[in-house]
Amino acid sequence: MAGSSTDSRVFTYDLADPLAYLEAERLRAEDPSVEWVPVLAPPAFRCAEEIASMREDVERRAAAMGLMEVRWPEDFPFDSEKAMLAATYARQIGRAVAFSLAAFRQAYAAGRSLAVVDNILVAAAACEMHPRAVLKAMETRSVREALEAASR
After folding, report:
1. pLDDT tens-digit readout, 134-147
2. What pairs with residue 36 in β-bridges?
3. Are 12 and 37 contacting, i.e. CB atoms less than 8 angstroms apart?
C-alpha cells in the first residue's frame, strides 16, 4: 500500500498507509515540488504477522529519519475512506500537502485513527480548512468521483 508514483513528480498515497507517511515526510523535506494525489488503496495486510513486521519496520525507519516516535491508532489498520475524501477536497483547494501531512501526523505521531471524523477535522483545522466545508465536501458526489478516478 506504500505511496507510489508512476511519474517521478507525482506521489500517490493513502492516509491509512504508514509507509506512505514516511515517504510523505521524506518528500516534504527533500522534494516539495512533487504533486500529491490521494488514492484509496486496498488493505495490504493479510495477517497479524505482516502487520507486526510492518510496524517494526516503520518504527525503525521513522527513528532513523528523526521523526517523532510512532504511536499507532488503536484500530490500526483503520478505514481511511472519510479521510481520503477530505484529502481529495484538500487537493481541490490547493491544500493537499498541508492537510495530508497533518492527517498523517494525527495518525502516526499522535496515534489517532483517521476513521474518526473528529481526528480528520483536527488535521483540517491545522491547515486552516473550515470544518463545515470539509464535512460538506466529504459528502459531495464530485469529491467522491474525483477520489474514485484517482484510485483507478
Report:
1. 999 999 999 999 99
2. 11
3. yes
